[in-house]
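Q: I'm writing up a methods section and want to include an example of the input and output format. Could you take the sequence below and give the corresponding predicted C-alpha cells, formatted cleanly so I can copy it straight into the document?
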Amino acid sequence: MGRASNSEVGPPWQGSTEGGLVRVRAYHCTACLGDPPQAEQFERASIAIVQSGVFGIRTGKRTRVLSTGFLLVGNPGQSYEASHDHGVGDRCLVFDFGARTVEDLADTLRKKTGPYPFADNVLPPHPRFDAFRALAEERLVPGADVMGLEEIGLSLATYVLAQNGAGSPRSRVELPDSQRAREQVVAAIDHIEHVGSHELGLADLAETVGLSPFHFLRLFKRETGVTPHRFLMQTRIRRAIALLRGTSRSVTEIAFDVGFGDLSNFINAFRREVGVSPRRYRQSGL
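A: Here is the clean output for your methods example:
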C-alpha cells in the first residue's frame, strides 16, 4: 500500500458515494523499501487480498505485517498508515463495497455489534481466500460479467464476516508492538514459503529466527492469528489451488509436490480448508 496504480472492473458507482454492490480492482503499490510511512484512509468498506509483496499496516497503536495471502480489511472512514520496512511494493486484489452493502450483510448475519462493519483489519492467509481470488482474477478482464464479480465479492464478504465478526476495532485489546517480533515472523513466513513443501518441525522453524519453540509459537500466533502448523498447511493448500487451476497434473502428483506425504491427508486437509475435495474444486472452481 502507498503510491499506487489501479485497474478496475465492476459496476460503476451510482453517484459519488451511494449505489453499486461491489467493484473489483487490481492494486499495484510502487513504494520503495524504507519509504516514509503513508497516512491513508479507507473510503469504503473494502477487502484486499495480498497477491505479492510485504508491507506493514498500522491502525491504532499496533502495526501488522502482511504478505502473500493475507487480507487487509477496511472500514469506511477508518485511518491507517502503510509502511514498507520489509520489502518493495505490493500487489493486491481489492473488493470495494457500496455504502450499505457490508452493513446489510452484517445485519443479515446478526454480526453487527458496533459502528464498523468489520471487527479486525488484518486476517491471516486462508485457502478459501485464495479460491475467491483465483475466481475473481479469471473474470477481471475488460467486458467482464458484472454479476459474476458481484457474487464473488459478496461471498467473500459474507465469509469474512462469519469468521471475523463485526464491531469496533478500537474496542479490541491492543497487544504490545515490537518491530523485532514482526521481523522474526516475516522471516519465518518467508522460510515457510520457500521450503514449505519439505518436512518442517516447530523446533527447526523456531531456530531459523532464533527463538525457543514455545516463544515462537506464541509470537507467531499473536502476529498472524494462526499457529505455524496451520499456516504451513494453508500455504501448501494455496499452492495446490494454483496447480489444480493452472495445470492438468493429477491430484496425487499435486499432493506430493506441495508437501503432503499421504494422499488421504491432502484430500482431508483440502476439504477442511476449502470446503470441497480437490477434484470437485478443479471441476467447479468453487
